[in-house]
Amino acid sequence: QDHVCSLPPVPFRGAPCSDAAGSQVPYAAIMQQVNSSLSGVLWDEVQKAPFYEYKDSVGQFHQVWFDDPHSISLKAAYVKSRGLRGIGMWNGNSLDYSREAAAEQQTQAMWQALTP
């Protein structure tokens, strides 16, 4: 089916299907790979999150889900609108902290998205 990618069942803290079946990818790698992906950036309205699809060198199909400044700002705005006390994120150290101009802009936009 279009845009359906199933994770193999890998037990992880009681969940039948989890991130234990996948791996974490740094944001810089995501930003580079999305431009050469099969799909370009796609949007899931339920999760309010972007993702893209690609095939690896042996033809295996993959999906990569990630947050960007837009998806984070939507989640931060939701937290604020509900009067919740905060928001968490998985790994801020996966951002690109190099001195490259594009990386600095992306990293700054990600952090700014946390404060609606």
TrEMBL record:
SUPFAM superfamilies (alphabetical): (Trans)glycosidases (SSF51445)
GO cellular component entries: extracellular space
Pfam families the record matches: Glyco_hydro_18
Top-level division of the source organism's lineage: Eukaryota
Coiled-coil region: none
GO biological process per UniProt: chitin catabolic process; oligosaccharide catabolic process
Keywords: Glycosidase, Hydrolase
GO molecular function terms listed in the Swiss-Prot or TrEMBL record: chitinase activity
InterPro entries according to UniProt: Chitinase_insertion_sf (IPR029070), GH (IPR017853), GH18_Domain-Containing (IPR051887), Glyco_hydro18_cat (IPR001223)
GH18 domain span: 1-116
PANTHER family: DI-N-ACETYLCHITOBIASE (PTHR46290)
Name of the featured protein: DIAC acetylchitobiase
